[in-house]
Design goal:
This protein is of the alpha/beta class. The protein is built from 15 helices and 10 strands. It binds ligand AN7. The site of ligand AN7 has 21 residues, from helix 4, helix 9 and helix 13.
């Protein structure tokens, strides 16, 4: 059957009006790749999978939320959407607005978004507004403006976003036949960890304790399809780690610009996901994040953007330190594609390229030098 996207696939688990048309680009159904070399290298006898969300249509997990948020906005008669973004949300908003024939306004921090994301927003013809400030400043402005103007906010404070993003947990359960023992995610604005937990709750056994917050959209469907739920691990960049500080970070800084966020909007949901699942937050230096990005590319052939590699940096350290038990199954979400941020990747590349004359002998000499 022709796959059109996650709305048609999971419509009965999404509280969209029945007559809402899907604004879709074939998002979802991303591969769950089992790592083969790294677990052997580190002597881990369990299983580590990466959910490669970089293979969504705009190259990040944001497409899952955006297809639902834009479909709902269009159905409600909205003509324009707006978001603040560290880059990926703006790329997704731009694409889905184009698809829907709507106008998109995106606020991004000047000079602090990766090149690929800037290109994506630019080519779509959406209205790009660069602000002299960070994501948190943009978020504050968007919240204020949307009260005063007829524009739909498509940041994850829009509950349709988390509804769409929860479907990644559904796909993982379908592939594994159960939830993993641990689920590791990078945490920025904290929407994704909240969405995964919502998805796992909906598919898994009834929660032993109730969430401290219960918005109407949090627990839509509760048809149990598996009998376990994962422990949720939220990993942050050390320079942008409000969950580790216990309060917002005023001037967040990290090379992983996607998660350069100091005041996460889904604070309570994310806290609930971690505490209810028996999980934890941890933080990682930029060097650890970049090392994990390179390890994945060089040992497994999987190229994700820096922020995404935070999940693997965390999982590997917590395996080594014994927080993640031997023999367990671990899923790390790789939230965005490596090509989003070519500048950081090129700076990390092994060496300058070898340049030789276009002669067999010259190339042969170069090969022999490397053998
Ligand atoms: C690759 O695009 O917030 O914790 O404005 O792009 O759900 O925020 C991006 C977030 C992780 C963090 N990995 O997810 C934005 C934006 C990548 C990301 C995150 C983002 P949340």
């Amino acid at each position: 059957m022709h796959y059109t996207g996650l709305i048609e696939r999971y419509r009965e688990r999404l509280p969209l009006p029945a007559d809402a048309q899907a604004v879709a680009l074939g998002e979802g159904r991303t591969p769950l790749i089992e790592l083969q070399n790294i677990p052997r290298d580190i002597g881990f006898d369990g299983r580590i999978y990466v959910k490669f969300e970089g293979l969504n249509p705009t190259g990040s997990f944001k497409d899952r939320g955006m297809t639902v948020a834009v479909s709902a906005a269009k159905h409600a008669g909205s003509k324009a959407i707006i978001c603040a973004s560290t880059g990926n949300t703006s790329a997704a908003a731009a694409a889905y607005a184009a698809r829907a024939g709507m106008t998109a306004f995106v606020l991004i921090p000047e000079g602090k978004i990766a090149l690929g994301k800037l290109a994506q927003a630019g080519i779509s013809g959406c209205e790009v507004i660069q602000i002299r400030g960070n994501f948190d400043d943009g978020m504050r402005i968007v919240r204020g403006l949307s009260d005063a103007m007829p524009i739909t906010v498509v940041n994850s404070i829009n509950p349709w976003r988390l509804q769409g993003q929860k479907t990644a947990a559904f796909e993982i359960i379908e592939e594994l036949g159960r939830a993993p023992d641990y689920h590791c995610l990078p945490v920025g604005n904290a929407g994704n960890i909240s969405a995964y937990w919502m998805g796992y709750r909906e598919m898994g056994p009834k929660a032993p304790v109730e969430l401290p917050i219960a918005p109407e959209h949090f627990d839509y469907a509760r048809t149990q399809v598996c009998d376990n739920r994962p422990i949720m691990c939220g990993y942050q960049a050390a320079g942008a780690a409000p969950f580790l500080r216990g309060e917002p970070v005023l001037a967040p800084e990290t090379i992983a610009t996607a998660i350069r966020i100091g005041a996460p909007q889904s604070w309570d949901y994310a806290q609930a996901a971690v505490s209810e699942s028996g999980g934890w937050f941890a933080e990682f230096a930029d060097e650890d994040i970049l090392a994990a990005q390179k390890l994945l590319a060089s040992r497994e052939g999987v190229f994700c953007e820096p922020a995404s590699a935070t999940s693997v940096a965390g999982a590997l350290r917590d395996i080594r330190q014994g927080h993640i038990r031997p023999g367990s199954s671990v899923v790390c979400t790789l939230t965005g594609h490596g090509l989003k941020d070519p500048d950081v990747a090129i700076r990390q590349a092994a060496a300058d390229p070898t340049v030789v004359d276009a002669e067999p002998a010259a190339v042969e000499k170069a090969l022999q030098a490397a053998l």
